[in-house]
Amino acid sequence: MANTKLELATVGVAENGNSAVLVTVTRGGKVLDRRSVDLTDGSLPTHPYHHEGSWAVGRYLNTPGARPLALADVVVLVERVREAALRGARQSLAELARAVPARIGAIALRELPTLPPTTEARITDHRAHTMADSAMYRKALAIAGEEREWSVHWYDRARVFDDAARALGQPRIDELLQQMGRSLGPPWQAKQKLAAAAALAAAGRALAP
Question: What is the pTM of this model?
């Protein structure tokens, strides 16, 4: 059957650990979908780098729930969470693509930090272990998007609202975001606004010569 979804849409993502808000918009700024997804379920820890990884190297062992762990065991655990996150990302984007009355062509995600190349190094590095979990979930969504042949755009959270306004040729997008929120109803909080702005900015970059 021919694909009748002719209008092109972009998905903006605002993640918080293993959860993410996805807002899908057209190039003109119409909201087509707003949803929250969990990339993993309760059978796995949500922050294996920051929590279990820290315990394995002796950090935070005096906090409630902490327990001594072997570094090798945590490396295996991280891989299990990574694989589960990718399955969840694939399922979430497939469900979104089926639900949206447009052809999705791009996904916008917060920029990935520069991290050490191995799981072990990310666990032991004091700076990296605080960011590696969130980066893992964003990477899972990026891979799932690429598999669907969506272009992946990385945004700077500090600039994305200005980038979205520039893409629309407007000085600001506050009023547009308020209109989006009124049309959808709650929840329309900072996470939803960030995801919408990311989608608008990415749509503008896709149109740029």
Answer: 0.93
Residues 98, 175: Cα–Cα separation, whole Å: 30
Burial of 151 (0-12, 13-18, 19+ CB in 10 A): middle
Chain segment 65-122, per-residue pLDDT in tens: 889 999 999 999 999 999 999 999 999 999 999 999 999 999 999 999 999 999 999 9
In terms of Cβ atoms closer than 10 Å to its own Cβ (0-12, 13-18, 19+), residue 186 is exposed
CA distance 52 to 70: 9
The band of 204, judged by pLDDT with boundaries at 50, 70 and 90, is confident
What residue segments make up the domains of the chain, in order of their start? 8-207
- Measured CA to CA, the distance from residue 25 to residue 156 in angstroms comes to 19
In CATH, the architecture of 8-207 is 2-Layer Sandwich (3.30)
Distance CA 189, CA 143 (A): 27
CA–CA distances in Å: residue 64 to residues 55, 57, 70, 78, 123: 12, 17, 18, 21, 20
Which is higher by pLDDT, 208 or 159?
Answer: 159
Q: Does residue 33 register a pLDDT over 60?
A: yes
C-alpha–C-alpha distance, residues 95 and 162, integer Å? 30
Measured distance between the N- and C-terminal CA atoms of the chain, rounded to whole angstroms: 32
